[in-house]
Amino acid sequence: MATDFTEETAADAVVDSFAKTSDPRLRELLSSLVRHLHAFVRETEPTIAEWERAIGFLTATGQKCDDERQEFILLSDTLGISMLVETINNRKVGGATESTVLGPFHMIESPRRELGESIDFVGTGTPCVVSGRGLFTADADGGFWFRTIVPSHYPIPTDGPVGQLLHATERHPYRPAHIHFIVTAPGHRALTTHIFVAGSPYIESDAVFAVKKSLIKEFTEVDDPEQAARYGLDGPFRLANFDIILQPAPDG
Amino acid sequence: MATDFTEETAADAVVDSFAKTSDPRLRELLSSLVRHLHAFVRETEPTIAEWERAIGFLTATGQKCDDERQEFILLSDTLGISMLVETINNRKVGGATESTVLGPFHMIESPRRELGESIDFVGTGTPCVVSGRGLFTADADGGFWFRTIVPSHYPIPTDGPVGQLLHATERHPYRPAHIHFIVTAPGHRALTTHIFVAGSPYIESDAVFAVKKSLIKEFTEVDDPEQAARYGLDGPFRLANFDIILQPAPDG
Asked: Chain A closest CA to B161's CA: distance in Å?
C-alpha cells in the first residue's frame, strides 16, 4: 500500500489492499467496484456537501428497510441494476422465453391452484383468461390456462428515499400492467418473468426497466358467449396467449 | 426510454430516464454513477446470489448507523472514497499544507485552550510537544504550541458490516498514530488535516488511506531538563514541529 495518497494512485492503493483476500471472486468484485467508483468520483468531482448528501441518502435507504420493505432492491430496480443482473444471468438461448425481474413485492406463499382456476384476489375488473403451452407443465399436452382480471399499471412505493430520487429526477413511479410468472420443470432452468399488457400506460417507461419486447402480449377483447362459456365466464372478457419455452438446465 | 431491455442499451435507457431532471448537477452525477455501476456489473457479471449479498450488505450498513455511529462513512473511508473526495476538494496549491480526512470520530465540541495548554484527556503516556508556525494564528508571530501525549495507532470499529468486509479481505482495521488539526484564518481556506507519527505501526497501510508523505512528522525524543522546563515538563518528552501554510480563500 502506498504511503502517499494521490488522486492518480488512490484506486491502485485500495485495490492493493485486497491482495490477501482468500476468496478470489470477492477480490475480483471489490477491485472492479473500487476502480469504477473511483473513476466516477474523478469524473464528477463531488463537493464535500454532495458526498455528505450521498452518505445521507444511502443511510436513509438502509433505515427504510424492514421485514416488508426492501428499499435497496427498489433503488437497484430503479437504476436498472436488477434487470441488468437478471438479464446477464438468464441470457436468451435460441427461442427460449425471456426472463425479467421478480420485482419487490413477490409473495412466496401463493396457494396451489388447478388449471383454469382464478388467481384474482380483488373480484372486480375486466375478466381475463391467460392460456399458453409450456414445454413441461402439469397438463399432459403442456397446455395451461387460468382466469384473472386484466391487470392495471401501478406505482412503486414513493414514501422513501427512492421516491425522493424519482421526484428529484422528475421520473414517474409507475410500472406498466403485467402478470408475473415463475415456471419450473425437471431438467430445465427455472424462469422468472412477466407478460406485459400491450398498450398499457407506461409500457415505454417502466420505472424498473423490466420490459422486453418479446414479453409484451395482446390482451384481445372477446365478446362471444360460446367462448366465454368455455372458460366459465358469462360476459365479455380479454384473452392473452403466452407460450413458454424453457431452457435445458446447464447440467441437464 | 426503450421498450426493449438489453445489456447493451440498459445504461442509455436509465440515463435517458433522467432527461427531465431540473437540477443539471444532479443529472450529471446520477448519469455518471449509472454508467459506472452498469460497467461494473457488465464487467463482473454478478450472480443473483452475489447481488442479494450486496443488497444485504448495504442494508446492514444503513441499519448499523445511529446518532453515534456512521457505518457508510466508515465504508467510504475504507474504500478510499472519502480521501479521494477530500483531496479533489483541497488540491495542493504551491507550498500550502495538505489536507486529509476528518475521520469518523471527530468531536465538534472541543474546549477552547490557550497556547501551550495540554489537550491530553488520558493523563498517561509519553509527554509530547507540538509546535509550528501558521500563516495566521492567535499569536502575533503566527507561532503555536501545545502539549499532549504521543498518540498511538488504534483500530476503527469492526463490529459492523465494514468490519466483516475488512475481515473477508484480510485487511487490518488500524490507523497509524496521528493528531488532528482544523485550522481557520480570515481570508483563507479552512484546513482539515492530520500529522502522522513517523515510524508508527501501519503508517504504510492506514485502513482509511489518509496518509500523505508531507504530513508524516518526526516526533523527536528530547532528554534535556532545560528544554523540558521551557515547556512546563519535568522529564523526557518528544517534540514535533508542524508549520502550517494556508491557501488564500477563492474569494479573498
From this structure: 12
Summarize the confidence of residues A30-40 as an average pLDDT: 98
The question of ipTM being above 0.90 is answered as: no
CA-to-CA distance for B78 and B113, rounded, in angstroms? Answer: 32
Best mutation target, B17, B75, B194, B214, to test chain A (most A CBs within 10 A): B17
Type of residue found at A151: P
CB atoms within 10 A of CB B52: 13
Question: Which residue reads 455511529 in cell numbers?
Answer: B69
CB contact under 8 A, A38 and B89: no
Per-residue pLDDT, A166: 95
B164 close contact with A: CB closer than 8 A: no
Query: What are the counts of helices (DSSP H) followed by strands (DSSP E) for chain A?
Result: 7, 9
Cα distances (angstroms) measured from residue A67 to each of A57, A71, A83, A102, B72: 20, 11, 23, 17, 21
Contact B138, B115 (CB under 8 A): yes
CATH number of the A94-241 domain: 2.60.130.10
The mean pLDDT value for B81-105 works out to: 84
The partner residue sitting opposite A203, judged by closest CB among B3, B17, B61, is B3
Please determine, for residue A136, whether its predicted confidence score (pLDDT) is greater than 50.
no
Question: Can you read off the three cell numbers belonging to residue A65?
Answer: 428497510
Q: Where are the domains of chain B?
A: 94-241
pTM of the shown model = 0.87
Q: Where do runs of H (alpha helix) occur along B100-234?
A: 161-168, 225-230
Q: What is the mean pLDDT of chain B?
A: 88
Q: Which pLDDT value is given to residue A140?
A: 59
Report pLDDT for B1.
Answer: 47
Nearest residue of B to residue A5, measured between CA atoms: B212
Q: How confident is the model at residue A133 (pLDDT cuts 50, 70, 90)?
A: confident
> What is the number of residues in chain A?
252
Q: Enumerate residues 78 to 97 of chain B having a beta carbon within 8 A of any beta carbon in chain A.
A: 79-89
